[in-house]
Amino acid sequence: MNEFLETFHIDWGLMLAQLVNFGLVFLALYFIAAKPLRKLMDDRGREIEGGLESAKSNAELLEKTKREYESVLAKARTEANDIFERGKKEAEQKKSAMLEEAKAEVADMIAAGKKSLEMEKSKMVEDAKRDIISLVISSTEKVAGKVDAAHADAIKRELSVL
Length: 162
Fold this sequence. Notes:
Blueprint: H1 2-7, H2 12-144, H3 149-161
Helix pairs in contact: 2-3
């Protein structure tokens, strides 16, 4: 074994010193760099996990809000449709009522027109009778001479029967 140590020039004292130096440098790096770096990485990992959990809860909240929005929107559409249908029915009812009212007014106008025509007709008949009576009396006077009041009343009675 000595030959081996001499061949490779291994010095146990130097080797032990380098081992101690390596241990000191390792411990120094561990406490100065590795430990704070691990703590920083653990903190960052917890922050990321918290962010992921927050993102999940926000996604769930967003989905819940979206469902509520869709529900409210569907309800609003249903209500709007109901209001539209009620308005349409009311418009139809008002239209029907207005048509009935217009028909009644037209019927009243027609009845008033017929009544007015009847009154005009009877007035014209009365006027025609008076004219005929006066013509008959004047023609009788021209033909027979003077017509007395009794004879004129008789002519009026006869013609008024017509």
